[in-house]
Amino acid sequence: xxxxxxxxxxxxxxxxxxxxxxxxxxxxxxxxxxxxxxxxxxxxxxxxxxxxxxxxxxxxxxxxxxxxxxxxxxxxxxxxxxxxxxxxxxxxxxxxxxxxxxxxxxxxxxxxxxxxxxxxxxxxxxxxxxxxxxxxxxxxxxxxxxxxxxxxxxxxxxxxxxxxxxxxxxxxxxxxxxxxxxxxxxxxxxxxxxxxxxxxxxxxxxxxxxxxxxxxxxxxxxxxxxxxxxxxxxxxxxxxxxxxxxxxxxxxxxxxxxxxxxxxxxxxxxxxxxxxxxxxxxxxxxxxxxxxxxxxxxxxxxxxxxxxxxxxxxxxxxxxxxxxxxxxxxxxxxxx
Length: 336
Prior knowledge:
The structure is a single chain. The protein is globular. The protein has helices at residues 14-25, 57-65, 91-111, 147-162, 190-201, 226-238, 256-266, 280-283, 295-299, 309-319, and strands at residues 5-9, 31-35, 53-56, 74-79, 115-121, 169-173, 175-177, 204-207, 220-221, 223-225, 244-248, 254-255, 273-276. By secondary structure, it is α/β, with parallel strands linked by helices. Helix 3 (91-111) packs parallel to helix 4 and helix 7 (256-266) packs across helix 10 (309-319). Helices cover 34% and strands 16% of the residues. It has a domain at 5-178 and 223-250 and 290-307: Rossmann fold (3-Layer(aba) Sandwich), CATH 3.40.50.720. It has a seven-stranded parallel sheet with strand order 3-2-1-4-5-6-11, sandwiched between helices. A two-stranded parallel ribbon has the order 7-10.
């Protein structure tokens, strides 16, 4: 077993628990998980995973403020813990949780010469009119559509202006889906929502399009399987000299119609789709296209293939959703 100490905030969460499992497979178990479990079933994501300690997020924050971690001999801090609810409207909470906490940890990591990898978000790109390039030259030009995206964007900009971004690594996750997202409520991927609708009603509801450039259900997203997202995170873990902002996505687009049809196919049923109005509270924030530019990570040497979308959906539906399995209950493997 490898003795290097790793801190993983958000370790009980969706991407965090998948990353924790991948680290375990590599032989890393000296890991401190930081999270806030509350009254959810997020704790189930940790079953079967190996780590040495668990801290509630506020307690860990105090330890960082007191400079206790300076004596812990930490190799890497993965900061994936944050409020990921794009509909959250409590600006003070988001600024404290997503901006303030990240700032505290990043500065402590740099001070103690600890590798720091944190989760930004594709929500920072706003409506996409300014593109989806992770070239830091364009960072300040981005205009997020909601306070969640802005709270993430604000730290990215802060890190650039203060020079922190030259010493840490920020990852902009696009639409990630896969096992261990069961606890996320309305923030779960649409793959699991579509699966549940099919099992319950035999049909799936999709939003109508209010943009003449897109037909109903033909709005486009960059979907990436969590196993691929974790592989990308580990690429930066292995190459700690790679700092700055990077996109974590497939670099491809898939329509909602294609997504739904693939879920239907995975459960062996013919597709039945009903198009409904977009709720007024999210209509102005709705994105018609997201597509990660992953040329930057490719040029730096990331050469793994991205799992074909249809293959990924089938793996997720058949090997996890059908039996409500968690990542540690199924062999973690590269898909052929």
